[in-house]
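Contributing new records

If you add data, match the layout below exactly. Sequence lines come first and carry their own label; structure lines follow with theirs. Keep one chain per record. Anything else will be rejected by the validation script.
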Amino acid sequence: MYAFELTRAKTVADAAAALAKSGGKALAGGQSLVGAMKLRLAQPGTLVDLSGIAELKGIRKDGDALVIGAMTRHAEVAASSEVKSAIPVLAALAQGIGDRQVRNMGTLGGSIAHNDPAADWPAAVLGLGATVITNKRKIAADDFFKGMYETALAADEVMTAVSFPVPKKAAYIKFPNPASRFALVGVFVAQTANGVRVAVTGAAPSAFRSKPLEDALGKSFTADAAKAVKVDSKGLNADLHGSPEYRAHLIAVLASRAVTAAG
């Protein structure tokens, strides 16, 4: 690790001002950022600690949506009776993230802002058509994820919460790396008020929606319909864990299992 300055923000306004002044990075749970810093993949001169800002934490129902504070930890989402009642798939997704330490330290907002190509939360945000709320604006899920580790957040913008619309039914199935628990491929399927949404993580440089699967499941929300879709492997990841063709095959298989799990 190298030397850096740590600033502890007491309010969202303090955090935004510190980020604007220093050009540094917000520190949420630190489970992704600190690891990247150790490897010199990220080298911010200043970290703005958000852990002391109470308004960034918590879970509440707001009409037909579930609003989760950006600094709410994965373990808190997994254990929340409110989440299990409104959108149980989110509790199950949170329970499947990393290991116990990661779940007790990592946060919803930190994961989404970091936008790791294999993270679980981006699939949920896209799959449910959620809205990312910041200190400046509201950003639709489809406009938020821009590419590998890249989002629509400005350098001095602070994510405050994410609003998840309650779906008619939804499920998330992932094929995890047995060591890291990151998704080699993960597929989130949801029947929403605006139609079927299918989001994929782990298979490309950033989470994305699969229109072929959405079209097929919009006509017939069945496992057979999902399994029959031929997913294009172009642009998918290739590494020691799997080829683009293998990942393309997994997307359709996992989508069919998610439909079954969704009921």
